[in-house]
Amino acid sequence: xxxxxxxxxxxxxxxxxxxxxxxxxxxxxxxxxxxxxxxxxxxxxxxxxxxxxxxxxxxxxxxxxxxxxxxxxxxxxxxxxxxxxxxxxxxxxxxxxxxxxxxxxxxxxxxxxxxxxxxxxxxxxxxxxxxxxxxxxxxxxxxxxxxxxxxxxxxxxxxxxxxxxxxxxxxxxxxxxxxxxxxxxxx
Length: 187
Fold this sequence. Notes:
disordered C terminus, globular, mainly alpha
């Protein structure tokens, strides 16, 4: 993607090529982030569409301040997820269902597929035990594929705080996942 400021200018001028580039680059990343947060494929698709619609509607109020466009877009996604949970329309779903849609297998052996699903389920359960701030960082960094700087902008935190949260989350995940594998071996 070209220079962030020129991208922002193209979006504000409603240049179809700039919007197409933004959509192509970020759609799957925004979808994965939302799917992980809401756990429902259909809701994640709807919310992802709403994120891009809100972006189009609010681009005129976007002010270039050196913040990557991706941080602005993921802030919209973050707010959409919060609104989704606040409305009470949210149903409790397993994040595994929506995440599996993102990780569709290509003729993988059913045994390997089942093992992979169990591994994903263990990771999601471990992520669910993190603090909300740690989960936010992990979801944005790994599902949304954002840089530390972009996560900091989305969450309104310093880069140092994001790095600390990420480190503590990864240590906690490593601890939970390694203790979980030891418990399985004992059975």
